[in-house]
């Protein structure tokens, strides 16, 4: 009986299914497909990043020792500690050194939005391809799509600029300026030199994809709006004497 119940629930959906992949060649379907792909790239370029920053330290009993601090998404840098120069901690003058700043909220906002947009695009593509006839007849679906598209465009705008600001701060918190904030490097007989930090070009790309997503969704608002009664009503008002 579970299979019978499942068949009863699913059968109306299957009966109304009319597959039409030609929708993907139309502006609304093609833009939605691009939004799906760009959401994947935004998610991957930010959420998949791993890097490290390195210092060259000389202190008591240690000469030119490379120490590193590895960091990654979600960029809670205040939990990232440099490896000690030696087991004795430079004769007791070296204490744990943490990076500064917690940028997890900005990064997670950006990545979570990308993941939700990815899922929504899949659902929208299913409707466009399989139930386009229902979508065109039911104006409620179009109005819902319009509302979600406008909200998504706004969220891409906010999340991208918030993430871009966080990325700029991450570069500062992992760059050469960190030397001045390390008390252990100011101990007598201790010298620290900034060595390197992993390139964050891929994170710059994530910001670009955020901006592209914002532009795509803003264009999507216009495409959906043209199919709604709102656009038709406005045309009738402007054309009336």
From TrEMBL:
It is found in: Membrane. Its main location: membrane. Keywords: Glycoprotein, Membrane, Transmembrane, Transmembrane helix. It is a multi-pass membrane protein. The keyword Hydrolase does not apply. One of its GO terms (cellular component) is synaptic vesicle membrane. Residues 23-229 form the MARVEL domain. The chain crosses the membrane at residues 109-131, 143-164, 202-225. It holds the Pfam family MARVEL. It comes from the Eukaryota. Belongs to the synaptophysin/synaptobrevin family. This is SYPL1 protein. The gene is Sypl1.
């Amino acid at each position: 009986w579970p299979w019978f119940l499942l068949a009863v629930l699913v059968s109306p959906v299957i009966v109304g299914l009319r597959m039409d992949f030609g929708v993907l060649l139309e502006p609304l379907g093609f833009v939605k497909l691009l939004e799906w792909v760009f959401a994947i790239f935004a998610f991957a370029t930010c959420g998949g990043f791993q890097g490290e920053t390195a210092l060259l330290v000389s202190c008591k009993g240690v000469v030119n020792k490379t120490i590193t601090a590895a960091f990654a998404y979600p960029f809670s840098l205040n939990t990232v500690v440099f490896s000690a120069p030696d087991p004795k901690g430079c004769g007791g003058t070296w204490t744990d050194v943490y990076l500064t700043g917690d940028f997890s909220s900005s990064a997670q906002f950006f990545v979570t939005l990308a993941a939700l947009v990815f899922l929504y695009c899949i659902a929208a593509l299913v409707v466009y391809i399989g139930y386009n006839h229902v979508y065109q007849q039911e104006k409620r679906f179009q109005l819902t799509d319009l509302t979600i598209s406008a909200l998504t465009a706004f969220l891409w705008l906010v999340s991208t600029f918030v993430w871009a600001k966080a990325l700029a701060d991450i570069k500062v918190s992992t760059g050469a300026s960190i030397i001045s904030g390390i008390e252990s490097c100011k101990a007598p007989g201790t010298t620290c030199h900034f060595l390197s930090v992993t390139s964050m070009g891929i994170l710059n790309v994530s910001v670009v994809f955020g901006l592209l997503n914002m532009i795509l969704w803003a264009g999507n608002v216009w495409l959906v709006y043209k199919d709604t009664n709102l656009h038709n009503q406005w045309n009738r008002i402007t054309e009336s004497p």
